[in-house]
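Saturday, quiet lab. Running sequence design on the structure tokens for the scaffold JK sent over.
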């Protein structure tokens, strides 16, 4: 089973996540597909070193695991990108989970760790009715993430 989990974070790796996701898409259950991207991770690694970078991703993956309900599918999609798929939920519930994740991140950042991390996230809804592919979901989530980042940058400036 080693090949299906990400060695660092212990959650599904990209390939296993995609297999799982394709399986779910075939079942045509509507679900929420959430894409979480750690901000400026390259400069984090450059500043604090790769060991700290790894540690940071490990803690962050754990925070994601703790905030998302049992039965969610979690994966590490890229170096600093995570994905979650949740079924039988609502937009309100997702927003609550994401608020919780944000609080968890603040807690991580304030627990005497002088290496604050931040992230952006976007989500898409895979609809039972529409022909839906992983790429479509990714693009949609990515688009929302970009929107969120822009909105966030604006709110920081004011």
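Result came back. Writing it out in full:
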């Amino acid at each position: 089973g080693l090949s299906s989990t990400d060695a660092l974070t212990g959650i599904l790796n990209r390939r296993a996540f995609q297999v799982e996701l394709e399986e779910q898409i075939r079942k045509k259950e509507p679900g929420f597909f959430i894409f979480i991207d750690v901000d400026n991770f390259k400069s984090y690694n450059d500043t604090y070193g790769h060991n700290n970078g790894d540690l940071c991703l490990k803690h962050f993956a754990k925070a994601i695991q703790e905030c998302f309900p049992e039965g969610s599918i979690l994966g590490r999609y890229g170096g600093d990108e995570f994905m979650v798929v949740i079924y039988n939920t609502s937009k309100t519930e997702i927003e609550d989970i994401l608020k919780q994740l944000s609080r968890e991140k603040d807690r991580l950042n304030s627990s005497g760790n002088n290496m604050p991390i931040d992230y952006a996230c976007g989500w898409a809804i895979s609809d039972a009715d529409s022909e839906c592919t992983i790429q479509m979901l990714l693009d949609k989530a990515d688009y929302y993430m970009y929107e969120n980042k822009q909105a966030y940058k604006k709110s920081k400036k004011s």
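Notes for JK: DSSP finds five helices and four strands in the chain. The longest strand covers residues 31-38. Ask whether to fix the surface positions before the next round.
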